[in-house]
Amino acid sequence: MSPRRERLSTLLLALAVAVLLTLLPLPTALEPLRPYWVGLVLLYWALEVHEMVSLGMAFGVGLLLDILTGSLMGMNALSLVVLIYLVQRFRARLRFFPPWQQALAVLGLLVNDRIIRLWIASLVGEPLPAWHYWVPPLVGMALWPWLFLLLDRIRAGRRQRRS
Amino acid sequence: MARLSPTGSTRLFSPEGLRTARLMMYLLLCVVLMAMDQRGQYVPRIRSALESLLEPVYHLVGLPSRIAGTLSQYSRAYGEVTAQNQALSDALLRQSAEVQQLQALQQENRRLRALLDATVGRDFEFRFAEMVQVNLDPFSHQVIIDRGSRDGVFAGQAVLDGTGVMGQVDDVHPHMSEVLLISDPDHALPVQLARTGLRTVAYGTGHTAWLLLPNVPLQADVRTGDLLVTSGLGDRFPPGFPVAVVESINRDSGETFAELRARPLAALDRGREVLLVVPRRASEANGAAAPTGEPPEQEPEEGR
Hints:
By secondary structure, chain A is mainly alpha-helical. Chain A contains seven helices and no strands. Chain B is about 35% helix and about 25% strand. The longest helix of chain B has about 40 residues, at about 80-115.
C-alpha cells in the first residue's frame, strides 16, 4: 500500500463528506451560515499536499458540485479553479502565515469567491441577494483553524495506521 | 515579476506561465459551459443524464431529515397528537361540506355548459409528492420531489402546494424530478385577476417573496389584495388555481403600463408536500409526448 494512494483516499473521503455537508438540509435559521465546505477542504489540501490538487481536479470537483446543487453548469467549477489557482500562486506565503493571518487570507479568498459568483448570477439576470449572502465567508474564516487542525489529525492518523 | 526574466523566449513555458495558461484554459471552458447551459440544448441534456446517475446521493442526503421527521412524529406528546387530530378532523368535516356544495355547483356548471354547447371544462386529478430535503443553489430556483418518470411525472407538469401554484416540472429522472419555481427570473406564468378577469403574465423575479406583473394597462381596475389565479392560457397550468395576491401597484403616468407586484401564495422556499396536477385526458392530450421530456423551449411564454 503506497502512502500516496492512502492520502488520495483521505482526500476523496474528505471531499465526499464536504459534498454531503453542502447538500444536507438545515433549519431555515441556520441556512445562511453554511460555509463553503468543498472550497475549504480543497483549500487545505492545496496548501498542505499541493501535488495532489491540480486545477483540473478543482474543475472536476466543481462540475460534480454544479450537477448536484443544480447551479449553472461551470459556476462552482470556475469558483474552485480560481480559488485553487490563487492558493497555488501564493502558497509559499500562505503556508508560513501564523494561523490568525492565514484565517484572514482564507476570508479574502472566500469573499473573492462570493464576488465571482455574484458577478455570474447577475449576468444570468438574478437580483442582488440579501445581506446574509456575505455571511458564509466569515463562518469559513472562523472555522478555518479548527478545520485545519482536524484535517491534520485525520491525515496523520491515517498515515500511521497504514504504515 | 517573473515574466520579465532575461530569458524572455521561454517565459511561456516557465512553471508560472504554464499555470496561468492552464488557468485561462479552464476559465474559458467554464464560461463556455455556463453559456451553453443557459442557452443551448446539449449541456442541459448531458446534465440531466448525469443527475439521473447521481439520484442515490439525493436520497442519501434526504434521509436524515426523513428520519428526524418520523422520530418527531413518534415522540410527540399524546395530548398534542389528540389536539392535532381533532383540528384535522374538524377541517376535514368543514371541507367535505364545501366539497358537497362544489359538486352541486360543478354539476350545474356542466349542465349549463351543455346548454350552451360549450367545450366541457377539463378535469384534473392530483397526485401527492414529497420534496426531497436537499439544499440546492439558491440561484437555481429549483426543488426536488420524490416522484419521477416511473410515477408518470412529465416535463411541464404543473406543481401546486396546499395554498397555490409552485411551479412546473423541469427535468424528470426515474425516481425524482426537478421543479422549476415560479420565482425563477426566466419563468412566466399566464394569470388573471380573479375579480375582474383581466389577463396578464406574472414573471419571476429571483425573489421567492414576490412576482412582477409589468404589463397591466394603466386604467385597469386593480386593487391591492386582489387575488391572481392561473388563466389556463399556454396549456401548461390548469385555469383557476390561486397564484398570488397583489401587493403594490405602481401607476407611473410616464409609463405605458402599470407595474404590479404580487406575493406568491405557495410556500416556495419552505414547503414539504406538493401536489402534481394530472390532466384526466393525459392519454390523448399529453401522454404520448410527455415521457420523452418535451423541451420547454417550444412554449416561449412559459418555462425557460
